Amino acid sequence: MKARIAIIGAGMGGLAAAVALRGFGFEVRVYEQAERFTRLGAGIQMSPNAMRGLRGLGLESAVRRRAFQPRTWSNRDGSSGAMKFELPLGRDAEDRYGAPYLQMHRGDLHEALLSAVPAAAVIRGKQLVEAAAAGGVRLCFADATTKEVNLVVGADGLHSRIREILLGAEAPVATGRVAYRATFLAALLRYPVGECTKCWGVDRHIVIYYTTANRDELYFVTSLPDAAWVSESWSVTGEMAVVREAFAGFHDEVREVLRACPKVHRWAILERVPLETWSERWMRRRISRRR
Ligand SMILES: Cc1cc2nc3c(=O)[nH]c(=O)nc-3n(C[C@H](O)[C@H](O)[C@H](O)COP(=O)(O)OP(=O)(O)OC[C@H]3O[C@@H](n4cnc5c(N)ncnc54)[C@H](O)[C@@H]3O)c2cc1C
User: Is 211 in the pocket of ligand 1 (CB under 6 A)?
Assistant: First the structure.
């Protein structure tokens, strides 16, 4: 009999796990709390090791078609714009690491992963509230339905309920820094900017890159000190005026990007303390409880 596997969360991790496990012949269902998926504004850098993973999942060409391949990663001084060092990417990185370094919209990566899982295997509007050992695992959802499976994979993000059930409640650690992030039409710029640039200030930086093969979309993400802000959510927006002010002393290209950008998301950067184990502790706990 094939093992029945439930994956909680249809984000990047959950969908990638679903594609891989289905490839090994397992019966997989992904349970996602959201009712629908939207192309929310953020870029993602796909390093060669990530691209090797996507190659293994059969998604390399789909991702290459949409993504932008920068020739270099430029590191510049924030205020003067002077080049600090330039990392060769493009063909150089591909020859060296056997896979490309790409940049893309997270929504496009998500769509590519989603396209590799049958629609019926991704069940939306299913928020996991409880999981308990019951031969295999019994899952309970917010809509009062239950499911019994042989194995459950927790891919439910930073505020993981599965992690809480396995290991107990533990709040994420606030880094005291905030990321403002936005994707917007590159046509709003008065002139084209560098392909991929990180501009370094004393206590802040901004990363700017194109996210589409035809360069019609630009992305930026900041890291700024802000100890008071701890909300980590896709729906929380910020003020462009605040971001412009924070980078007012940066060079022209940064100011042009921030001038052109119409709206922005504000995202506290949170961390998790690394775990000793991802599964054994739960097994031990469950086993010792049964004794
Ligand atoms: C500012 C910033 C920049 C980043 N840049 C990069 C980058 O350039 N390259 C890179 O590789 N990584 C980057 N990362 C990291 C990357 O975004 C994350 O590692 C990745 O998104 C995590 O994926 P995930 O599938 O684990 O979680 P998520 O993408 O958060 O997905 C979790 C899913 O689980 C669902 N869910 C949650 N709880 C439940 C529940 N109880 N029941 C059912 N469903 C549930 C959620 O709705 C969501 O769909 C960045 C992160 C940040 C914050």
Answer: no
Ligand 1 pocket mutation, candidates 32, 73, 233, criterion most atoms within 8 A of CB: 32
In terms of Cα–Cα distance, which of 95, 90, 60 is closest to 73? 90
**Nearest CA to 227 among 264, 269, 266?**
269
**Which amino acid residue places its CA nearest to atom 39 of ligand 1?**
156
- Centre of ligand 1 to C-alpha 46, Å, is 14
User: Which residue, chain included where needed, has tokens 């980078």?
Assistant: 247
Can you say whether residue 133 is alpha, beta or left, with left for phi > 0 and alpha for psi between -120 and 50 degrees? beta
What superfamily does domain 1-36+124-168+275-291 belong to in CATH?
FAD/NAD(P)-binding domain (3.50.50.60)
CATH 3.50.50.60 in the chain: give the residue spans: 1-36+124-168+275-291, 52-105+173-271
What is the whole-number distance in angstroms between the Cα of residue 67 and the centre of ligand 1?
19
Its pTM stands at 0.92
Question: Of 31, 180, 209, 219, which residue is the catalytic one?
Answer: 209
Please measure the distance between the N-terminal and C-terminal CA atoms of the chain and give it in whole angstroms: 28
Tell me, in angstroms, the distance from the centre of ligand 1 to residue 85's CA. Answer: 30
CATH of domain 52-105+173-271: 3.50.50.60
**Tens-binned pLDDT, residue by residue, of the chain (291 aa):** 678 999 999 999 999 999 999 999 999 999 999 999 988 879 999 999 999 999 999 999 999 999 999 999 999 999 999 999 999 999 999 999 999 999 999 999 999 999 999 999 999 999 999 999 888 899 999 999 999 999 999 999 999 999 999 888 999 999 999 999 999 999 999 999 999 999 999 999 999 999 999 999 999 999 999 988 777 777 789 999 999 999 999 999 999 999 999 999 999 999 998 888 777 545 545 544 443
**Beta strands, E only, 168-262:** 173-185, 196-200, 205-210, 217-225, 237-238
Cα-to-centroid distance, 157 and ligand 1 (Å): 5
Active site residue 210: no
